[in-house]
Design goal:
This protein is an alpha+beta fold and 251 residues long. The chain folds into 2 domains: 94 residues, Alpha-Beta Plaits; 140 residues, Pseudouridine synthase I, catalytic domain, C-terminal subdomain (Alpha-Beta Plaits, 2-Layer Sandwich). The chain contains 5 helices and 10 strands. The two termini are 18 Å apart.
Length: 251
């Protein structure tokens, strides 16, 4: 049995997130269907993160076990022939049997894209949150780094089926920054891990800061509140991208 590690890019618009859901198209489910054809039996795929419905990825990492001895380059080509155009395998490689894409990740980076122009091109609309309304971007940018460091992000987390397990909602953000690129206002965040809807709720809160409905002290208070789902409105999924997953050297 071989463990294979793949790097994936996908347009999440037409999918109901990463995780398999009966009767619904998902990224994990589509990958498993394709690999079952190649392997001749069911194959379970593990992802580095469970992206929500409508969220995209530039470099999601996943792993699975195969008995088939097909070379990894041929496997990549075979998967891309069978997959819908919205999912592409960018790279496939042999991995150690114990490699786990989620547990071994040391950090992940997400990017949220807000289109600030009055008119949003039809070729951008699936991949940005169109927000042409008044917004103090400098105020928003100054608030973003306040989230850096180790905090309890309960206020920024949506209810999750895993909550019953009582896991900690403390996460460390190594970088939390907002900046302009043309008509896009981009929020980019790197952290040890992320909770359900956490990035989208952070963005919603930062937009509220930019609109003048909240200030920096409100952001700090949310980090100390421990009150579930008390952050700003959840930003739409279409603007969110998983852009990198980093692992220890030599893993």
């Amino acid at each position: 049995m071989r463990r294979i590690r793949v790097t994936l890019a996908y347009d999440g618009t037409e999918f109901h997130g990463w995780q398999v859901q009966p009767g619904l198209p998902t990224i994990q489910g589509t990958l498993q269907s394709v690999l079952a054809v190649i392997e001749g039996k069911p194959v379970h795929v593990i992802g580095a993160g469970r992206t929500d419905a409508g969220v995209h990825a530039l470099a999601q990492v996943a792993a699975f076990d195969l008995e088939n001895r097909i070379p990894v380059d041929n496997l990549r080509r075979a998967m891309n022939r069978l997959l819908p155009d919205a999912i592409r395998v960018l790279e496939a490689r042999e991995a150690s049997p114990e490699f786990h894409p989620r547990r071994h990740a040391i950090w992940k980076t997400y990017e949220y894209r807000i289109w600030r122009g009055e008119i949003c091109s039809p070729f951008e609309r699936r991949y940005v949150h169109h927000f042409p309304y008044p917004l103090d971007e400098e105020r928003l940018m100054r608030a973003a780094p306040l989230l850096e460091g180790e905090h309890d992000f309960t206020a920024f987390a949506a209810a999750d089926e895993k909550d019953r397990l009582g896991g900690s909602k403390v996460r460390r953000l190594f970088s939390s920054r907002a900046f302009r690129e043309g008509e896009r206002l981009i929020y980019r965040v790197t952290g040890s891990g992320f909770l359900k809807h956490m990035v989208r709720n952070i963005v919603g809160t930062l937009i509220e800061v930019g609109r003048g409905n909240r200030d920096a002290s409100d952001v700090l208070a949310l980090l100390k509140s421990g009150k579930p789902a008390s952050a700003g409105p959840t930003a739409p999924a279409c603007g969110l991208f998983l852009i990198e997953v980093r692992y220890p050297e030599g893993l």
